[in-house]
């Protein structure tokens, strides 16, 4: 589910003396965020809890319905190790995407005094967000759920209860990829288990009764198929956005491109870090931003 919550208008300040607001902006020091980033949105919290519950349900069915009752120890060990590893990486990616600051712009700094301190040259302009009273960097958009301007905001995703932006896009991409992989893996195992039970006695292929086993497997099959399609589409759109260096909001609003064009490989390194390593696929590490990171504030001439 993609909810693009962005500001539809921008106030342009051509000179520091032209800055006027209906209510005075609170100084920046009073808006410094805490170390833990978490959005207190009821819908997002519910969606996040549902996500973890669905993964735990798949874990329960895979282990206690299909793998533990299996007579093939090698089959159970290999598939159990693969599934649990992917499930751990998926949940870790979800947690990092949810609790990482996506690139929030400091609020309350669009004051007359602060803009005067920037010493803008003639012809330079800065954008001011009228909702959070902040100087808005180029390519930043305001999210009505987070109540902040987010740098390179792609969209607000209720499933991770956070915006997908400059600092957490890697974790969101890994989350969609690992959910798609465990969905595919569990779907394949369900098919093999059904075939195995049809050839053997149903009472011997599961520790549950045959009706309960069928219901649990059908529910898992439906869940896996649904989320395989959903996360695969989301993963594909994210990869396309990274390669083209154009966020979902920019594509939706068809904004004029004012930033330099880079190669697909450079765009990928800007999201996942530089240089390429196995840590690209590990959600426990924050990607380095030595290459491709935008400046805190970009002024348009």
UniProtKB/TrEMBL annotation:
One GO CC term, this protein: membrane
This protein's record includes keyword Transcription: no
Membrane topology field: Multi-pass membrane protein
Key words of the record: Acyltransferase, Membrane, Transferase, Transmembrane, Transmembrane helix
EC numbers: 2.3.1.225
Cross-referenced InterPro entries: Palmitoyltrfase_DHHC, PFA4/ZDH16/20/ERF2-like
Keyword Secreted: no
Catalytic activity, reaction form: L-cysteinyl-[protein] + hexadecanoyl-CoA = S-hexadecanoyl-L-cysteinyl-[protein] + CoA
UniProt enzyme class: transferase
Localization annotation: Membrane
Domain Palmitoyltransferase DHHC: 128-254
Transmembrane spans: 42-67, 73-92, 171-196, 208-230
Molecular function terms from GO: protein-cysteine S-palmitoyltransferase activity
Similarity-based family: Belongs to the DHHC palmitoyltransferase family.
This protein's domain notes: The DHHC domain is required for palmitoyltransferase activity.
Protein name: Palmitoyltransferase
